[in-house]
């Protein structure tokens, strides 16, 4: 139990440290963050669609693809929740077979339930994020076809960009929750697996968060 607590604490601190570093780097060099780049591209896309009269079909197609992708990921999250509940006993048996004997007694205790609960929470957060992305993409579909008559405070263009960027953020965070589930799954096989998986995840995220050259 003690080793698992230490491993979990170390993993959380590593993830927090990485994201603090990412935030600081994005503030110093905004062009180094793929998230900032994606936000600017979405704003330019909204500007192009609003000021062009021949882009209506393109807007509908793009938003439909985004909604379908978010819907697929939300459905996947639900299936993962159901699948995790259905094979929870098998997960415990696999973990017991692979777990070090010194820690085997903890597998069936409260520690195993905590691990399973964190995994289900992770998939539930993913489902919520993708559902919110679908909701916001649908709102953008209505907003982007309206003319800005000044009736909306702050301007329709600004609001549309804000909605679209928020939808993109929800989609991105939902995808990352799937990534976060990998260390939790490996945690069933021991605390060392959790730390190693977290290091591998951070290395992967570092490549994803960097703007491709």
How would you explain this protein's 3D organization?
Mean pLDDT is 84; it is low at 102-108. α2 runs antiparallel to α6. The protein has one domain. It has helices at 2-28, 34-51, 56-86, 88-98, 110-143, 156-187, 191-208. It is mostly helical.
Largest sheet: none
How confident is the prediction overall: mean pLDDT?
84
State the shape. Answer: elongated
Q: Using DSSP, what is the number of strands?
A: 0
Q: Give the class from helix and strand content and strand pairing.
A: mainly alpha
Number of domains: 1
Classify the beta-strand content into a percent band: under 5%
Task: Give the uncertain stretches in residue-range form.
Answer: 102-108
Count of runs of 4 or more consecutive helical residues: 7
Distance between the termini: 44 Å
Share of helix, binned: over 70%
Q: What sequence of helices (H) and strands (E) makes up the elements?
A: HHHHHHH
Query: Rounded to an integer, what's the Rg over CA atoms?
Result: 21 Å
Helices, strands, pairings?
Blueprint: H1 2-28, H2 34-51, H3 56-86, H4 88-98, H5 110-143, H6 156-187, H7 191-208
Helix pairs in contact: 1-7, 2-6, 3-5, 5-6, 6-7
Question: Could you write a compact summary of the structure shown?
Answer:
By secondary structure, the protein is mostly helical. The chain has one domain.
Features:
mainly alpha, 0% strand, single chain, elongated, 7 helices, 213 residues, 80% helix
């Amino acid at each position: 139990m003690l080793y698992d607590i230490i491993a979990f604490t170390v993993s959380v601190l590593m993830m927090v440290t990485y994201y603090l570093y990412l935030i600081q780097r994005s503030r110093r060099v905004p062009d180094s963050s793929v998230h900032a780049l994606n936000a600017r591209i979405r704003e330019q896309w909204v500007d192009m669609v609003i000021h062009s009269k021949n882009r209506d079909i393109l807007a509908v197609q793009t938003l439909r693809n985004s909604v379908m992708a978010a819907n697929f990921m939300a459905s996947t999250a639900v299936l993962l929740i159901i699948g995790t509940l259905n094979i929870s006993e098998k997960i415990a048996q696999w973990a017991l077979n692979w777990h070090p004997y010194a820690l085997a007694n903890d597998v069936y205790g409260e520690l195993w339930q905590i691990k399973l609960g964190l995994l289900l929470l992770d998939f539930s957060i993913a489902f919520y994020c993708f559902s919110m992305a679908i909701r916001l993409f649908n709102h953008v579909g209505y907003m982007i076809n309206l003319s800005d008559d000044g009736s909306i405070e702050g301007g329709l263009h600004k609001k549309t960009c804000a909605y679209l960027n928020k939808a993109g953020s929800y989609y991105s965070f939902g995808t990352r929750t799937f990534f976060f589930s990998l260390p939790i799954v490996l945690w069933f096989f021991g605390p060392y697996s959790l730390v190693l998986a977290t290091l591998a995840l951070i290395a992967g995220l570092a490549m994803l968060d960097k703007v491709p050259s």
